[in-house]
Amino acid sequence: MINIAIDGPAGAGKSTVARAIAKDYGYIYVDTGALYRALAYKAINNGIDVKDEINVTRMLGSTKLDITYTEKGQRIILDGEDISDSIRTAQISMGASDISALPFVREWLLDMQKDIARKNDCIMDGRDIGTTILPDAEIKIFLTASVEERANRRYKELVAKGESITLEAVIEDVKTRDYNDSHRAVSPLKKADDAIEVDTTNLDFGQTVNTIKEIIDTHIGGEK
Fold it and tell me: How many of the other CB atoms lie within 10 Å of CB of 26?
């Protein structure tokens, strides 16, 4: 199996880029951030503080989380309901950042992610894929961009979805998530020693995809 790990900070474009590349190579795409979003979604909708270890632990005891793949791509099924389109909000993003800092939450999801990688050629993106989830991945990419560029991209996405938010608020949100993700005690956001960094600040989507595909082809001989 070929496993490709793509890590990087919030708003770097990991999901859209990884999804496109996975489609081109016929690999499974795994958006691990969506799993944390799903748990944050359940907590928030049940009035549970995402930083409350006791109540989040209780919540996990009655939670069934699955990933399925359809013609629409990866779908997140939480307790039997497809919530894939409901977890892409600024509130859920921040909640996911907070809940992912809880060690037992990361452990709860670890086996699911590793199992997918064992059974499939896959591209998996997140914050700690190359360092913790798939430390032996054949290819590791660290995708990044300036805070301003990442915030601008996220702002455009949220506005397109009808959210009422300012660019300044998104910039602060990105800075907060960067700090939280990089300073959490367990599996912090970190570039793996053997990862290749790709800065997309001045690259458009197509250029980013092509850059990463060139890296992949160099490592696996262009096999698809």
Answer: 8
Quick check: 10 and 198 in contact, CB under 8 A?
A: no
Measured CA to CA in angstroms, residue 209 lies from 22, 114, 142, 212, 214 at distances of: 10, 25, 13, 5, 9
Q: Could you give phi then psi for residue 27, rounded to 5 degrees?
A: -95, 165
pTM for the whole thing? 0.80
In 3-state terms, the chain is what percent helix, strand and coil (to 5)?
A: 50, 15, 30
State yes or no: pLDDT of 3 exceeds 70.
yes
Cα–Cα dist 129/141, whole Å: 10
Q: How many angstroms separate the CA atoms of 35 and 33, rounded?
A: 5
Q: Which of 49, 47, 45, 2 is nearest to 22 (CA)?
A: 2
Q: Report whether 187 contacts 134 (CB < 8 A).
A: no
The number of beta carbons lying within 10 Å of the beta carbon of residue 83 is 19
Share of the chain above pLDDT 70, in %: 99
Cβ atoms of 118 and 198 within 8 Å: the answer is: no
Q: How confident is the model at residue 224 (pLDDT cuts 50, 70, 90)?
A: very low
Beta bridge partners of 65: 78
